[in-house]
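Field reference: "sequence" (input) and "structure" (output). Example, Inner membrane ABC transporter permease protein YcjO:
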Amino acid sequence: MADLHSVPGASADQLTRRAPAPAPSSTPRRRSGMHGLLGHKSPLRPWLLLAPALAVLGILLLWPLVRVVMISLQDYGLRQIASGESNYIGFDNYAAIFGDSFLWTVVLPNTIGFAVACVVLTVVLGTAVALFLNNLGTFWRTICSTAIMVAWAVPAITGTYVWIWIFDPLNGLVSSVLDSVGLIDPATTNWFTERLSFYAIATLNVVHHGFPFVAITVLAGLLTIPKELHEAAMMDGATPWRRFWAITAPILRPVFAVVTILSTIWDFKVFTQIYLMPGGNGGNKDVFNLGVWSYIQSFAQGKYGMGSAIAVLLTLILLGITVVYMRTLFKEEEL
């Protein structure tokens, strides 16, 4: 810096501003390779962070699914399991499935009809219970919500055996009550042999186990609706039914969409409740659904290729429902 006395009339601040900036002492260091890959602007950063989870999903889900598809293209039985050999036959298993009238007259009607009945009853009952809980005080709402969640917490196996005992032909609660009033003869009545009564019991079982999820989910949505909307509608003379369809249903449309699609996915792949009931494990072919039919073909008859093809068919149906579910979620987010 020049001497202050060497520039006439210059102040110390002016000389300081005129002084050139000192040269940088060192050049900036280059980023390391790992820092560049994990930088905030790196396109690889999200994939590197997701890599462990994707690897686990690939091992636990993707590879078994690929293996099932490969087996479905083979005539795969006990001999192939023992020898490890492949016996590819193309799409012959799928042709045999779609050409079998048993699929169209028994399995698909059972699967689709049962799922539709369960979904409708589960959503309706869950919504009714949610409306009831919404009208309770905080204390009783907590008590009743905890009570209905017991049905959700009970394992499917335990719940199925309870319903089997209730409808037991000889010693069940229903048979005993109806016998006492002279409506049936327990010695000649078996609720599990007829296709309609079998699935009626299974529907009661699934709805009883599934409605708490719908009730608590819809209740959470009901608690977000401003009370002023219903109060204004009441002042205008709207009935409770009218208020539900004009206020509650439109606001809770995303909630109803989610619980309906999730219930559809769960009810299409019901296996335990059907298989454990008398006749559902292969003794009564009239009550097979896709899940049970796939299991019986694979593990009871040793036709693993055929069973895998049925499992792939069920998976494709569930994937289609899942696509609808995801599209619904994305549409609701856009709104």
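Confidence is low (pLDDT under 50) at residues 1-7.
The two ends are 65 Å apart (CA to CA).
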